[in-house]
Amino acid sequence: MKIFEQFSHGSLDRVGQPLTDAMYRQRPKWTVASISEYDAAFFSGLVMAVKPRKIVEVGVASGWGSVMLLKALEAAGVEDHHYIGVDIAERFFYDANYATGQAVGEVVPSLASRYHLLTGRSIAEVAPELGGGIDFAFIDAHHMHPWATLDLLSLLPFLVPGTWVAMHDLNLCRKEDQEHRNRGPKYLFDAWDDDRAHSVQVPTMAGAIRIGAKPEDHLPLLLDVLYTPWELPVEERFLAPLVAMLTKHYGDEWGAKFQHATEVGNYLSNKMHSRDIDALTADISRLRNSASVKIGGFISRFSQRFGR
Ligand SMILES: C[S@@+](CC[C@H](N)C(=O)[O-])C[C@H]1O[C@@H](n2cnc3c(N)ncnc32)[C@H](O)[C@@H]1O
Fold first, then answer.
1. Out of 1, 16, 23, 169, which residue is the most buried by the measure of CB atoms under 10 Å away?
2. Which of 36, 66, 93, 108 to mutate to test the pocket of ligand 1 (most atoms within 8 A of CB)?
3. Considering 168, 200, 231, which residue would you say is the last residue of a domain?
4. Taking the model in full, what pTM does it have?
5. Are residues 282 and 181 in the same domain?
């Protein structure tokens, strides 16, 4: 396990703090469900430190996170970048009155020309179109396992060695209202065996993992994380392009291994104990009991009356 090798604890947060202080005063009220000031300081500091040129954000929502990272790129003097935001939803998931990514045009219109938004598809579906050379990724889409791992796998063939991959909501599952669900980013971050860093918040929500010199060397660990029981099933339309891409880039053997892992993950999550199913089972048994009590009562009244 490696942690804080390249960056010391707190150093990135300090770098990003002044930008965060300035920007959060301008934050539109509607951009809810986004990164907090703690997260923004850490992520901005990381972007300012590594100065990436091809950035992919998976899960854009209002676009407030994109605003912060675009401002961090500007503050670091990176002008010739490509920033690509990918989101399955065309409209802001929290309030459909706003478009996905709308905060960018609203808050930083001068930076919007370098911002490219792809909506309506998952990262596995669009990754081949993005091509190689991605040197920074920010994964902040579906938080239930296995999504964060699927998102990273989708990007892996296109990541430059040494790329930092930022991840949000690392410990969302520790919040009471989440009922210990949304464990996807946590499983991935906790398992990572190359360099990692996270924000100073306790428990932290913002972290990043670094891709090693040979991105494909992470495949065994990612396969293992994928075998951690899934919190929800994943539709074949998302899995098929991912497995096809892994087969294309890493060969038939890896393709077959990931295909099997996704089959096991879906099979077990479909069989798993679910509170919704428990509630339905309880309803059915209550109805059955009340029906048999009524029928039983009717039979005993009938027997008393007619002596049978
Ligand atoms: C927590 S929000 C992202 C917040 C954003 N990164 C920010 O900092 O403001 C999660 C977003 O992920 C999107 N999403 C959920 N599942 C997805 C998937 N499989 N692929 C792409 N986007 C997804 C949702 O539509 C939602 O907009």
1. 16
2. 93
3. 231
4. 0.89
5. no
